[in-house]
Every structure is written in C-alpha cells, then in structure tokens.
C-alpha cells in the first residue's frame, strides 16, 4: 500500500494524541501539520483548514497515497478504523467480534461521552455564552471524567489484568491513555481506578506511547 | 449464527433509535426491554441496569446466543460495528476502506460531537448544577446541532445525490435520521441542509426506518 500520511493535530489535543499512538503502534511514518487551537482565534476555524475539514475539529488524517485520490479523514476513531483496515498488522483490535465489541464499547464511552463534553469549544461556550465561572467549569470537567472513568474501570474487569490485546496495547489504550493525561492535567483524583492506572503506567513505558505524548510533539509549548 | 438479541432502549433515545434502524436494515429479530430515562429518577441509574451496563446509558444490546457466553455491548456505534461483523449481509458499510472512512467520519461527528452534548444527563446538569435557564439551554441544544449538521451537509457532497450505499441506506443514515428527528423536536431550522433533508425523506419512506421511529415503539408515550 503506497500511502503518504499527514496528521493535522495539536500537541494537547486528546483526539490527535489517540491517532499518534495508533500510528506509532503500527509503525507507520507520518508528517505532522500543527493546527494551533488558540492562536489566531483558533486556526481550526480558519478557511484553509475548514476547506480540508468542514467539521473544524482535530485531528484530520490525509492519505495522499490512496488509490482513489487524496483521502481526508476526520474523527479520531474513524481514522483508527481506517488504519486497522488498510494496515492490518500489527492489529489494534482483537480478532474475536465479541472482544472487539467490548474494546470499542469502552473506547467509545471515552470518545463519545467523556471527551466531547470537555473539548475546548465546549468549555469556551460554557464560559463565554453561559457565563459559567472557572470553578464551576472545572467541576464540570471533573464530573464527566469521574463518571466516565468509573464506568471504564468497571468494564476493564473483563480483561483481567491484561492489556486489550493480551500482552499488547491497542485501540482501547490509544483512547484511554490520552484521557488519563487530561484527567491528570485537571487534577482529577484517579486513586479509585487501579486498573486504569496500571494500564496507563504500562503504556507510558512503551516507546509508541512516549513518542506520542503531548510534550514530545514539535509544536509543544 | 445462533443469536438471541435483546435491546435495552427508550423510544426517544437517539442512540437506541440508531440501533433499531441497523437491526431492521439487517432484518434481525430482537426483543425490546424499555428503560425509562425519566421515571423513577431515571431507570438507567438503578442498580439492576447498572449491573448490566456500568456506563448507565442507553442503548445496550445483549446477545445471549454468543458462543463465549452472554455478551453485553454498550455504545450504539460499537453495536453497529458488531452487527456488521457478525451479520455481514446486508452490509451497513461500503466495501472500500476509503468510503468506509468517509461514512464513519460523518456518523461519528454526529455520535461524538453533536449528540452527547445534547444528551438528557447533560441538559439536566446545565439546569440543575449550573442554573442555566430554559431559553439558554435550548440555544445550547440548537447551537451544537447547527454546527454539526452544517459540517455533515458539507461532507455529504462526496456522496453526490446518492445514499451512503448507493441506492441503500446504512450506517450513516442510521446515525443521521435520529439526529434529524431530534433537531425537529427542538424546532431547529433545517432549511440550509437540503442534502440531509433529502436523505431523511428517502429513509423515512422505508419500512426499516418507519418501524424504528420513536413513535412506533412499544414504550412510546
């Protein structure tokens, strides 16, 4: 497969962080195009970027080696599914449909019901449009993380003390580790989630995750 | 495949509506277990349901015919992916990975960046914890729908005047039609989205969609 991959992201974007992990786990080379979420009123709102991605969010993966013409994929999980289909080895998902469903269920709980509520544009709306004070905004942030990680911790029981691919991390950990990063950044108490903390520690020791970390990115400040 | 499917849902739950459409498109029989989102303080919060689904959200699909033991899948898109893998015909997704990526990108924009912000628990938090007035809450609701549907309308250009599977609807329409239903329920102006309106009208004429509609469910009020 002749692919040339470019990732439009931002060092602290949790969803871009997921894709960096997935690309690294698959050993795929990619070029980075930083899109600054705050500078210039948010570069993701500028015409040049919205032309590429009308959703106006990060990340965006561009595959200029796609046979049918340049392919632009928005949405981190749509990108993960694409990478899994086009570059199947090493796999990010288990082979068994039931196990795949459990992995996607937990990953999507993070990607659908935790992260979007704490996305920058939502926090900005709370502050600017609804006049929510910083303290209440931080409580909102922690509320959704606490609810979400509690459910994920419970769901992880099905994996015993293993990673989602046995001895290897994949799709699930690519979503979980960036969420843990965000939780720590906002001083959430994670002591009730020993399974999550164990997984995060094991992943953070791996090169694929260390190289995907926000602070390791070229646009980190 | 010896499957016995039970869907825990609620007639007006947009995410449960997606799964009903998918099950109907695949011609799969299923039993419904209504979980009332308001009665009894929200039956999704009760211990009996949380034991089945620690995420405490709808829908939940239980497959009691799964070879490895009863399988419980939370998250509507994880359910759609499972159904696609276990009951591949008729397909909900195109065969080509690039086309699949475009479908998932639009569907996930709805499922990740529009719907979760307008979920009942979020509206309740805005009102109860943040003291947001009804008018501002409705503006919030319409704001995220307007942003999201605008991006989807633009993304639909890639499909020309076709449905996501050419002459047939699938994964994309299963996410789009329930979102249009919600938008109408909250009096959003949809006149700027002719492609979306066309798709919704074509889908609403099909039995699989009509039988999945909120008002057609046994627990509709």
From TrEMBL, chains A, B:
GST N-terminal domain sequence ranges: 3-91
Molecular function terms, GO-annotated: glutathione transferase activity; maleylacetoacetate isomerase activity
Superkingdom of this protein's organism: Bacteria
UniProt key word Isomerase: yes
One GO cellular component, as annotated: cytoplasm
Protein name as annotated: Putative maleylacetoacetate isomerase
Lineage: Bacteria, Pseudomonadati, Pseudomonadota, Gammaproteobacteria, Pseudomonadales
Gene Ontology biological-process annotations: glutathione metabolic process; L-phenylalanine catabolic process
Residue ranges of every copy of the GST C-terminal domain listed in the record: 96-221
Glycoprotein as UniProt keyword: no
Annotated InterPro entries: Glutathione-S-Trfase_C-like, Glutathione-S-Trfase_C_sf, Glutathione_S-Trfase, Glutathione_S-Trfase_N, GST_Zeta, GST_Zeta_C, GST_Zeta_N, Thioredoxin-like_sf
Family affiliation: Belongs to the GST superfamily. Zeta family.
Alphabetical UniProt keywords: Isomerase
SUPFAM superfamilies tied to this protein: GST C-terminal domain-like (SSF47616), Thioredoxin-like (SSF52833)
Pfam families in the cross-refs: GST_N_2 (PF13409)
């Amino acid at each position: 497969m002749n692919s040339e991959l470019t990732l439009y992201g931002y060092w602290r974007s949790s969803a871009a962080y997921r894709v960096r992990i997935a690309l690294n786990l698959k050993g795929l080379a990619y070029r980075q195009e930083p899109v600054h979420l705050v500078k210039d009123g948010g570069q993701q709102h500028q015409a040049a970027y919205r032309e590429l991605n009308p959703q106006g969010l990060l990340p965006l993966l561009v595959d200029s080696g796609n046979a049918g013409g340049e392919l632009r994929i928005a949405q981190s999980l749509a990108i993960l599914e694409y990478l899994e289909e086009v570059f199947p080895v090493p796999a990010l998902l288990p082979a068994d449909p039931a196990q795949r469903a459990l992995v996607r269920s937990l990953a999507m709980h993070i990607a659908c019901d935790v992260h979007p509520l704490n996305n920058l544009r939502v926090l900005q709306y709370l502050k600017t449009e609804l006049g929510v004070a910083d303290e209440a905004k931080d409580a909102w942030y922690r509320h959704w993380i606490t609810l979400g990680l509690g459910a994920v911790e419970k769901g992880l029981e099905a994996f015993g003390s293993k990673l989602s691919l046995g001895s290897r991390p994949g799709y699930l950990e690519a979503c979980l580790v960036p969420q843990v990063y965000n939780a720590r950044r906002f001083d959430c108490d994670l002591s009730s989630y020993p399974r999550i903390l164990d997984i995060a520690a094991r992943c953070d020791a791996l090169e694929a995750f260390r190289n995907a970390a926000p602070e390791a990115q070229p646009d980190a400040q």
